[in-house]
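Forum: Protein Structure Q&A
Topic: Joint prediction for protein chains with partners

I've read a bunch of threads here and the consensus seems to be that you should model interacting components together rather than docking separate models afterwards. I'd like to see that in practice. Below is the full input, 648 residues plus whatever partners are listed. Could one of the regulars post the assembled result?
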Amino acid sequence: MKIQIFCVGGTIDKIYFDAKSKYEVGSPAIGKLLAELSIHFSYKVDSLMAKDSLEMTDEDRRLIREAVMNSSSDRILITHGTDTMPETARALLGIDGKTIVLTGALAPAIFRDSDAAFNVGGALAAAQSKPAGVYIVMNGEVFDGDKVRKDVEANRFVGLAS
Amino acid sequence: MKIQIFCVGGTIDKIYFDAKSKYEVGSPAIGKLLAELSIHFSYKVDSLMAKDSLEMTDEDRRLIREAVMNSSSDRILITHGTDTMPETARALLGIDGKTIVLTGALAPAIFRDSDAAFNVGGALAAAQSKPAGVYIVMNGEVFDGDKVRKDVEANRFVGLAS
Amino acid sequence: MKIQIFCVGGTIDKIYFDAKSKYEVGSPAIGKLLAELSIHFSYKVDSLMAKDSLEMTDEDRRLIREAVMNSSSDRILITHGTDTMPETARALLGIDGKTIVLTGALAPAIFRDSDAAFNVGGALAAAQSKPAGVYIVMNGEVFDGDKVRKDVEANRFVGLAS
Amino acid sequence: MKIQIFCVGGTIDKIYFDAKSKYEVGSPAIGKLLAELSIHFSYKVDSLMAKDSLEMTDEDRRLIREAVMNSSSDRILITHGTDTMPETARALLGIDGKTIVLTGALAPAIFRDSDAAFNVGGALAAAQSKPAGVYIVMNGEVFDGDKVRKDVEANRFVGLAS
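Posted by a regular:
Agreed with the consensus. Here's the joint model:
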């Protein structure tokens, strides 16, 4: 098994700069997270961009789609901001022969109570278990990429009826 | 979706008693872990026993198999000690129509660097994604229940060639 | 012993709002922190304001000084933003008969690697151990309130030669 | 300032070996703990022994007393098991010109909810703030070394009336 991990920013990677009292997107959290666990399959982490997902453009999504298509791996995990994760999922539909799983976190990975490790564990398992297609793993659930939205009020992902 | 979670003990549930300077198996860690996350699907946690997996008997495994067969759910997650997790997986083979996923942790869930949340996230995703059968999710991998062993020296799970 | 704890905001209390992608000062972190420890002396936590310390005004410092003077306790702990902690310490000089200790954190208490618990432990010990006067406890050191500055570049507190 | 830190074992240093399902005393936790914080004063960590404090003998306490007396530093911090910490404190009474502070933890430093960082922060502050003598810092309090006992039932330290 070989999993290609692409990181594009989002809350999971958010860090905090004291002087300026604001968050910025830092280096991919999933790299440190996996390095601290006992992982023995082959994976590669590449940062494509480091953006708050609200600021992602069509051009950014085109770039992600290209990276996925050009990857030699057919198991792709993408860490992504939560606000527009469903939009990016839809922009990745229709790529033959690849299982593409998006995940992220509702709280930065550096937080004591972050959901990052739980979500990444789920996304890795889905990437190995699901047939080709696009999926979002958040809140402990594996959603089809074209049947999920973020409920911003409730701060969670909700499946759409088929 | 409805997931039935059975807990039988193991390292994931280990706690520590200062006075006696030793570990004992405590109440199921997965209950607290899921309660602290934002989980919105229906799940039920039942503790079947609280044993170090080295002490599990054929009778214990018969009891687990019965609980799985009697469950009205066809998605089953079992938290289990790591040392004999593959033996229990094999004792659960051949149950029709149910996806059964075993997981646990190499370090107790109360440890700062425990793999518990990561593993449970993976096991939940596998339980939703895999066809009927028995699986072990450890070290970020989804193993077939009849093709995995624990490498005790290396303290990790290894897949067996088909 | 009775310790009065005043909270005025700062990094230690910073929380993060996903929707807006920015930090805001939340409720006093020291309350939750002490509640989770096994503390048996009498203490009281009062929030005076919730400000980034760069935004603190002379009026704010007058308000803090009044609260300290009006407190019936002679052991006072103040959690405060780090950037202007020395200024507030100086504004509290010359209050007879009270040991006043300021502390805070370089990383929010909700962060995995926050120095909050370490600093608060130090501040409590200093409040019990020091004669009347004003002190800052940061970076594991007990500084005299009139002989300390924050080295913003190095992100740490440095004592001034007497 | 120069602080000499001696480590003699105890719960704070407890680690866990999966294979044997039991705890053992590991290398000094205070070294890692301080290394991860932003500490800029000079300190030295020396491990004198690695014992559960229930197993400490008079000979062990004689060895600790000698190490303290032979140290060139007059600010000494000792991390110690909690069960007999008061006994060791009493064995260190009457050393002229040195401030000696004992601390430890009710839960191992590797636990998510350990009191280790909080206690060590307090012990460092007390070592800097107190006149020569012997002290115990536990549960957020600075106790005189000859006026404190551990309440084993309540799992906490209690001051004795003078």
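Chain B has one domain: 2-159.
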